């Protein structure tokens, strides 16, 4: 199998195309993605206290992440617009490392998966944290955005190591 034939968003001439999913079966599909924002301990304390100048950072980031999942096809050129049946964004703290851990999930019943929606939700949530706190910590880093699980569809279940 050539690299071109393995990349479904490229035709036989290497040109970008949207994948035709019309013949696929509707199945329940779910994806979970994770990422993190690394910051100074003082920034983490500010977020946890709820006293950031721009307001409740985690509430804004949660809503932004869900909105990002819903608008993924507007951001990623060859991503199908899909009806999301559910999306969640959750946060946890690794206080020893001053890291905000972000996990997002997306669900649908359809012909194509929601991996991009989960990844977009994590990324948009992380970018929102950065935006809301950049005045006090421009050195924050968004790291480790990755797919950790997906279920449904022809390829079945994927679990990251």
TrEMBL record:
Broad EC category: lyase
GO molecular function: cyclic pyranopterin monophosphate synthase activity
Keywords for the protein's UniProt record, in alphabetical order: Lyase, Molybdenum cofactor biosynthesis
Enzyme Commission numbers on file: 4.6.1.17
Pathway(s) served: Cofactor biosynthesis; molybdopterin biosynthesis
Binding site for substrate: 78-80, 116-117
Provenance organism: uncultured Chloroflexota bacterium
Domain of life the protein comes from: Bacteria
Chain coiled-coil ranges: none
Active site: 131
Name recorded for this polypeptide: Cyclic pyranopterin monophosphate synthase
Family: Belongs to the MoaC family.
Catalyses which reaction(s): (8S)-3',8-cyclo-7,8-dihydroguanosine 5'-triphosphate = cyclic pyranopterin phosphate + diphosphate
GO biological process: Mo-molybdopterin cofactor biosynthetic process
Complex formation: Homohexamer; trimer of dimers.
InterPro entries per record: MoaC, MoaC_bact/euk, MoaC_sf, MoCo_biosynth_MoaA/MoaC, Mopterin_CF_biosynth-C_dom
């Amino acid at each position: 199998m050539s690299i071109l034939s393995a990349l479904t968003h490229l035709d036989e001439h290497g040109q970008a195309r949207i994948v035709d999913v019309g013949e696929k079966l509707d199945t329940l599909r779910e994806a979970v993605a994770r990422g993190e924002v690394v910051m100074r301990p003082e920034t983490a304390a500010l977020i946890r206290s709820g006293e950031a100048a721009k307001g409740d950072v985690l509430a804004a980031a949660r809503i932004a992440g869900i909105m990002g999942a819903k608008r993924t096809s507007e951001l990623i050129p060859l991503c199908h617009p899909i009806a999301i049946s559910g999306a969640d964004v959750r946060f946890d703290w690794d206080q020893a490392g001053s890291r905000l851990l972000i996990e997002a999930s997306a669900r649908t019943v359809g012909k194509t998966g929601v991996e991009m929606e989960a990844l977009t939700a994590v990324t948009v949530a992380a970018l929102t944290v950065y935006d809301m706190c950049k005045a006090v910590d421009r050195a924050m880093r968004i790291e480790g955005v990755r797919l950790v699980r997906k279920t449904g569809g022809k390829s079945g279940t994927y679990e990251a190591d």
